[in-house]
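#struct-help
A.M.: can someone run this one for me? Single chain, 144 residues.
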Amino acid sequence: MRAFRLVALLLLALGLTLPAAPSFAQATGQVRVKIVKAGLLAGGGAGSGVLTYRGKTYPFSVSGVSLGITVGASVGILDGGASGISEVRDCAGNYSSVGGRCALVGGANGVHLRNEKGVTMVLQGPKAGLELAANISRITIALR
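D.P.: on it. Structure tokens below:
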């Protein structure tokens, strides 16, 4: 019994001194998106972006539609984070957003998106153009 306790104590000590293995369950990524939008009542937009995840970059395309009050056109560059990622392919899919935006020549833009796989993106950044919007948006991201 004494030998068993000694072995158990040594294994416990060894386990406490070894470096922890990184968890690959879920991690966050950095996102940068450039999008051009235009609309009158219904709106549309398209653009491209890059996801940086676990030290690698993954380009993607963005397209979207919005329904509600939308008037004008704008160009925006958004930066932020993506959370809830188990695998890179989880970032592809349809995202939804509800909100309002206003830009007159220049302004700030922010969006909180979530897709059906549980990935959440919180993005913000400057925009240029003339836009007034209060709508529901559906955005599709496709990895290239």
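A.M.: thanks! The longest helix spans residues 2-17.
D.P.: also worth noting: The two ends are 60 Å apart (CA to CA).
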